[in-house]
Amino acid sequence: MRGHAMRRVLFAVLVTAIGLVLLLSFKPHDMAGVAQPPAAVAPAQVSPSPSPRGSTKSAGARTFDGDAVDTRWGPVQVRIVVSGSKITDIQVLQAPQENRRDIEINNRALPILQQEALSAQSAQIDSVSGATYTSDGYAGSLQSAIDRAGL
Predict the structure, then answer these.
(1) Is the dihedral of CA 106, 111, 112, 115 positive or negative?
(2) How far apart are CA 73 and CA 58, in angstroms?
(3) pLDDT, tens digit, for every residue of 1-35?
(4) What is the DSSP secondary-structure string of the chain?
(5) Considering the entire predicted model, what is its pTM?
(6) Which of 17, 75, 87, 88 might form a disulfide with 68, Cβ 3.0–4.6 angstroms?
(7) Residue 71's beta-bridge partner residues?
(8) How far apart are alpha carbons 19 and 6 in whole angstroms?
(9) Which CATH architecture has domain 39-149?
């Protein structure tokens, strides 16, 4: 009798642990109530007359749009602002924002990615923990913008 009760307890613990792992790995995509994307993923202002290569000039600064890189959760695209041969700003044109979790990840990860890229002046940046897909898409789009800028 004792062995049977012990097996039942172990089985219940195992089923509970598996259920918890499955629950924590679930990422919902259809959440109602997500109104506005945060400032970190709000679309950048588009210049009125971009050139065919995705580049514009204004007051000595030039902008270059990177490719939209598809990720598991949606496309990521950035625009760089270049003065001389230096990247002075990076704007996010697209990032996953289907639900509250996407927005939380982007609010945390995108400023870190921007800071690292501006500091490194390249797309050779570390992924942000918990935002691997966004980090990879960001770096890919950034590299294509840097290539367009000839940096």
Answers:
(1) positive
(2) 34
(3) 577 777 887 777 777 878 666 666 665 544 444 44
(4) -HHHHHHHHHHHHHHHHHHHHHHHH------TT--S--GGGSPPPPPSS--TTSEEEETTEEEEEPPPEEETTEEEEEEEEEETTEEEEEEEEE---SSHHHHHHHHHHHHHHHHHHHHHTSS--PPPTT-HHHHHHHHHHHHHHHHHHT-
(5) 0.63
(6) 75
(7) 74
(8) 20
(9) Alpha-Beta Complex (3.90)
